[in-house]
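Q: I have 582 residues here and want to know how they pack in 3D. Can you give me a structure?
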Amino acid sequence: MTAPTEPTPPAARHFIDGLKEAGIDWLFCNLGTDHVTLVDELARAELEARPAPKVVLCPHENVAVHMAGGYAALTGRGQGVLVHVDAGTANAAMGLHNLMRGRLPVMLMAGRAPYALHGELPGARDNYVHYVQDLFDMGSLVRPYVKWEYNLPSGVVAKEVIRRGHTLMHSDPPGPVYLTLPRETLAEPVAAGHARSYPAQRYGAAGSGTVPREAALDIARALMAAEHPLVVTSYLGRSARAVQALEALALLCGLRVVESNPSWLCMDRGSPCFAGFDAQALLPQTDLGLLLDVDVPWLPGGAQPREDSRWLHIDVDPVKKDFPVWGFATDERWQADCALALRDIHAAVQSLADADFHARVAQRRAGWLAARQARVDRTAAAAADPGQTDALNPAWVCAVLGRHLRPHDVLVNEGIRNGPHVLAQIPRSQPLTLLGGAGGGLGYSAGMALGACLALQDAGSPARVVHVEGDGGFHFSTPTSVYAVAQQYRLPILSVVLDNGGWQAVKEAVLRVHPDGPAAQAQQFHARLDGQARRFEQVAQAFGAHGEHVSRPEDLEAAILRCLAALDAGRAAVLVASVRKI
C-alpha cells in the first residue's frame, strides 16, 4: 500500500509563511467574510505549532492602523494590518494618511469580494454582501497614502509579493503599502515547492546613505564660519543614532536646535543647545541654517529668513514628493540618513577645528544662557497658576503629570491646541520617548500608545506609555475599540484627556481669518458640546480600565498617582481633566 498523500495546502498557508519570513510578527486585524481561508490557516498553524504572525483583534480599523504605527515608530519594523474589503479600507484610510505623513512602514492588506459567481472555484460568492462590496477601484480609497499597491494574482507568488511590499515599505523614505487579496486566490491550492521564499539578505530595503565626502567638508566649513547657525528638525528622532549624532554636532559647533512640530524627540530638552519649538524668532539673526528631517520648519506667513542667510537641507525626503506645493527655499539639499550624514560632518569639523574655533563656540554657547533661562522662566510661569474648578490650567496639568513620568516612559502627544503645553511642560530627554502625529487625522494617539506598549512588552522594557489628547481626539479615537484591545491583550496605557468642551482649533482658525466677523461678535463657532454629562472615564471603565475625572486642582496629583498605579498593576487608565473652556 502506498502512504496517503498530504493534501495540497491553500495559498493562504504560503501567504502566512511569507509574512513570518519577512519579519511581520503581528497582524492587527478587523476580519470579514473575505478572510475565511486565512482564519482557517492561522488556526492550523497554531494547532501544528508552526511559526505564524500573532493576531491582535481590533474592533475598529482606526485602532489597528495606529497600533501598527506605534509599533513601527519604536521598532522601525513595519507590521501587517488586515481589514475587510472596501469598508475596512475606507475605515483605515485616515490612519493610513497619518502613517504616510509620519513615514511609518505598514502593510495594509484587504480582502476582496469573490469574483466567481456560480461556485466554480473554492471561495466563490456565497453571500449577499459579496455583490455590494465589489467595486471597480478599491485601491483609490488609499492611493494617495501608499508607496505601492498590488492585487495578489496567484498563490504561487504569495511570498514574492509579500517580500516586494515589505521591501518598499521599509525603503527610504519609508511608508505604507497596500495589498488586496481575492478570496479565491487565498483558497487556491499551491504545492509547497511552488511557493518560493525571498530572503531579506537579497531582497531587502534600500537606505539613504550619507552625504558625499566633499559635501560633508563643505558643510563643516560653513558651520565653522557661521556666527549664528540654526538647526530646525521634526522627525530626525525616529533614529536614536541620529539624535546622538545631532547632540554631538550641536555641542561641537555651537548650534541652536529647534524642534518644529516634532513627531519624535530630536534633542534632549536639557541640552544647552535646545532652543525650543519655534524657529521664527531666531530667523532674523540666522546666517546659516540646517533643515534636518523636517516638513514645515516654520509658517511662511510669519517671520522670514534673512535674504543673505544660507540654508542647507539634509532629509530622507528633501523634495517632499508627496506635497503638491512646499515653498521653503534651500541653497543645497541631499537625500541622506541624518545619523550617517551628521556623523561624517562631525568628523570633518573635528579634522578642521583648532583652539580658536573651540573658544568661539564656548563663547557663543555662553551667550545663550540668558535666552535659555528666559524660556525656562516663561515655561514655569505658564504652569504656575493651577486654574479653578472645572477650568484647570492645561499647562499646570501637564507640568504635574511630567513630574511623575520616568525618563524612559513613552509619551504620545495629541494635545493639538494644548500640544505646546505637552511639549514644554513634560520633560523628555531620551530618544524614542516622545511620539507625535505628523498627519492631520485626529484620534491617533490612543492606537499609537497601544502599539508602543506592545513593542515595549516585546522588548521586555518596563517603560510605561502615556498619551495626552483633547476631548475631540478622544471622540475620534474610537475609544470603545481602544479599551477593548487594552483589556483583551493587557496593554496598560494611560490616556490623559484635556477636556475643554469642544474644538478649540475651529474657533482659533475662524478668528485668525475673520477676527471681527459675525462668528466672533456672536461667539458662535459651532465648536462646543455643551449641556452633556461628559464622563469619558466611564467608557474606559466599561472595559475594565481605571477611570478618573478631575475638576479641582487639589485632586489632580493623587488621581495621577492612582492611574499610574493601575498601569503598574496591568490595567489601562483614563484621566479626564476639565480644563479651561474654549
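Q: Anything worth noting?
A: The first helix runs from residue 11 to 21. The first strand starts at residue 26 and ends at 29.
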